[in-house]
Backbone:
């Protein structure tokens, strides 16, 4: 039954391919975002509408992630950061948390060779030490095996929270101050950037949030200061290539001034 539903769902998504081809031709490939961030929201609601277990919604969401990673590599977008599991998600029912961790290990093990073939570097970000041992082991293998890939950096937010990231950065800087390596006067935006989980990467140009909510949900609070937002009511498992391309086209219509005035 579940397999049949999944097949029908995927057929609807792939049927949009002709529209995707038209959208790709409309893109200005010289003005694509260097870094796209996505809050992958709506998996549970997607499953609930179909009277399916929430875990099936998460599994369907993995298919959307696979498709978006593929598009990013085709378009040579350098960085994709996805919000997979927040520091607050531990409050969910234990069976759902267990299913998410199992799916994480399955995804990494199943997709790693293909990700490497596409030149994807897997970079998990968050307080990873709190993840289950098998998840940590799978992520470490993925990180090590893909470390030299340069087509796309795939940041996967796991046990991630924007506030905890800033706390961790401040604590790391405080240790250096206490050790006499730097002084308080040395603390500036660059130093904070250099101690974030995303150190060395550009800030996101575009944030995509599906599922109709209008909040950041503790995601990349420092990095999103001047990011363009694109919101859609489409639930993440229904989000596909066409939606992603629509977001890119809309992004290219934005005028980004970063607090400055428009040229006269």
Residues:
């Amino acid at each position: 039954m579940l397999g049949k539903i999944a097949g029908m769902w995927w057929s609807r998504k792939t049927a949009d391919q002709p529209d995707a081809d038209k959208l790709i031709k409309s893109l200005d490939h010289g003005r694509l975002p260097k870094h796209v961030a996505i809050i992958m929201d709506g998996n549970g609601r997607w499953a609930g509408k179909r009277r399916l277990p929430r875990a099936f919604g998460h599994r369907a969401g993995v298919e959307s992630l696979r498709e978006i990673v593929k598009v990013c590599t085709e378009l040579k977008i350098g960085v994709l950061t996805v919000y997979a599991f927040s520091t607050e998600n531990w409050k969910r029912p234990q069976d759902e948390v267990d299913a998410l961790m199992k799916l994480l290990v399955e995804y990494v093990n199943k997709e790693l060779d293909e990700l490497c073939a596409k030149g994807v570097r897997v970079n998990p970000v968050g307080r990873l030490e709190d993840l289950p041992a098998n998840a940590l082991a799978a992520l470490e293998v993925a990180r090590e095996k893909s470390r030299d890939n340069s087509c796309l950096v795939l940041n996967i937010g796991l046990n991630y929270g924007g506030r905890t990231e800033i706390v961790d950065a401040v604590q790391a800087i405080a240790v250096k101050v206490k050790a006499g390596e730097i002084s308080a006067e040395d603390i500036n935006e660059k130093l904070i950037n250099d101690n974030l989980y995303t150190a060395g990467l550009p800030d996101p140009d575009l944030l995509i949030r599906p599922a109709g909510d209008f909040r950041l949900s503790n995601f990349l609070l420092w990095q999103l200061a001047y990011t363009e937002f694109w919101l859609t009511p489409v639930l993440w498992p229904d989000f596909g290539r066409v939606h992603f391309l629509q977001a890119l086209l809309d992004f290219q219509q934005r005028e980004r001034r970063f607090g400055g005035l428009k040229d006269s």
Observations:
- The radius of gyration is 19 Å.
